Amino acid sequence: MEAPLFNVVLVGTPNSGKTSLFNALTGSRQKVANYPGVTVERKQGFFVTPLGRQVSLVDLPGTYSLRGRSPDEEITRDVVLGRTESEATPDLVLCVADATNLRLTIRLVLELKRTGRPMMLALNMFDIATRRGVTVDVPRLAEALGVPVVTSIAVRKGGTADLLRQADVIAAQVASPPGENLWHPHSVGELRTLQREADRIIAATVSLPARPDTWTARVDAVVLHPVAGLVILALILFVMFQAVFAWAQPVMELISGGFEILGQWIQATLPAGLLQSFLQNGVISGVGSVIVFLPQIIIIFLFILLLEDFGYMARAAFLMDRIMGGAGLHGRAFIPLLSSFACAIPGIMATRVIDNRRDRLTTILIAPLMTCSARIPVYTLIISAFIPAKQIWGWINLQGLVMFGLYVVGITSAMGVSFLIKFFMWRDNAPPPFMLELPDYKLPRVRSIAIGVYTRAMMFLQRAGTTIFAMMVLIWFLASFPQAPAGATDPGIDYSLAAMIGRFIEPVLAPLGFNWQIAVALIPGMAAREVAVAALGTVYSIEGGKEAAEQIGQILATKWSLATALSLLAWYIFAPQCASTLAVIKRETGGWRWMWITFFYMLVLAYAASLITYNIARSLGAG
Amino acid sequence: MTLDTSHAAATVLLGNTKRGFAGTVHALVGANAASSLPAAELESRLLELGFVEGARVEVLHEGLIGRDPIAVRVENITVAVRRREAMAVVVV
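^ Those are the sequences you sent over. The predicted structure of the assembly is below.
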């Protein structure tokens, strides 16, 4: 008979190398999901011990104690205590410590011991500790703590052998009933006593080098310098932007080219008709227009994971904390907002680094206001059609200036919204504290980064294959049915449900200077903003679509007034025109509520901005 | 260690110290800080980051605006904390 699955949970303080140990033990055999009802990521992996026992390993959120002060930490507490219905009670609690920095983990071990669950402590990064001159008397430490202690080097092949062997030993004993749970939330006094006890144990079993890690101190002297540090941060951001916009371009062109060829092949192979139109216009161009962002998403996450593993992310938060604080944002909101310039989706996903729920929600709410790359095709089209390419003051290009202005309006309105949220919704609360550990710098490991990027990319593709696919089918349906009657001379779309909807909502949009064609184009633009460009092309029955952007521009210039064009630009700064962003907001906030709040506040802003822009432009004679 | 007030003359609040200050933690007084956290919760969090009485501390770095936040070496780890919360740490 096969032995039952041995359930191990991984607990540790943030920066203890928990994730790299998890990756080392389970490799790519990982499942990433959410815990039911909360937005906390649940990572589970599997491995087999030397004696052939199947082990399920769950990576619990990092925590300094079991007090559960955030949703993540509550999960850790409840799973360890076996209070979570959906989780098996752990057979073994594997606590991970950074061997170079034991103080905080030893206190956590003392606290975990009180739960009565079988435990093991892994001193990870033992190679780095040895190199730095830290020596640990492992048997004595095990004796003092009363739990088995093993050393591990997660990043080295065979570096977890000790751990695996010990897991077998514990698995064999597990039939003995676990101890009684004596844990209760610790008071300040108890925490103090535990920390003192931890310090006493460390003094007796660990010898620290006279000089701490001088490398980190030297790098920090420059990187955390009030002025030089900000300059370096700006440089890193510049390289990141370059990477996202320039390096991703060739691959993105390759992908969109590939989808185009696939579409043409379908057009050539299948007889003209509904199936051909569905596959070509609905499935391939729709899903393709989203998958094309995969290179940008991979690059963004590559940078984020590299900076995180290197230990720089905490420093960026330190440098930006007060600057962002002026707008009511937390220092940690910086990186997610930055990512949102590529695409709000990875940006919103990256808000998981913010532990305070209120701060995280504020960041999620304003992330879509950052000018994402999908707005660029729309901006480019309208600007090149309506804004003359003249120089002002001799050296500034007016078109470039308008583009820059659109970015600035996006950023300032995001800051403004954040400020208002803080002022109206959470006024009674003083800003949440900013307290975080600045870990020692460590060289990122290729394998761990690769696994991280791969998991994120798969999550994105999975969504493109489900939510976005469903949206595209719906939009294709609306634009295709009912079909034009035989002998009709107008484009087929004129008879479709999309056109009916367009004409139906036209009166609402008329005060903004939008005609029904724009209203129709805004509908497919819901799936992805840049689709609106192609949709305008279709609606105006122009051949060529995106490729002939200049030609569309010429036609638009004759059909629209300048006021309408400016109004549409203003609309696109704010409009919640992206179904996938809304879907991610729903998933990340764990419900419909914040998705609808985002949708409506952005819609209201977009309408107001367009209305004001249109009327001012008309009164200045641009109507 | 006793929290003897006769030493009070020599104590300062960590939130008021300048870069380069080095000393040891004398006491944690959550009520000293105008934090959004209740005093006990703030003390707990500081303890969890290693600010226990007797721990050696050194202020390593300061932010640009208002010299805030500060990066503090606590024994052998570095912790970033705003001056507002650092007011709860009495150092000597």
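Chain A has 25 helices and twelve strands. Residues 6-212 of chain A form a domain with the Rossmann fold fold (CATH 3.40.50.300).

Shout if you want it in another format.
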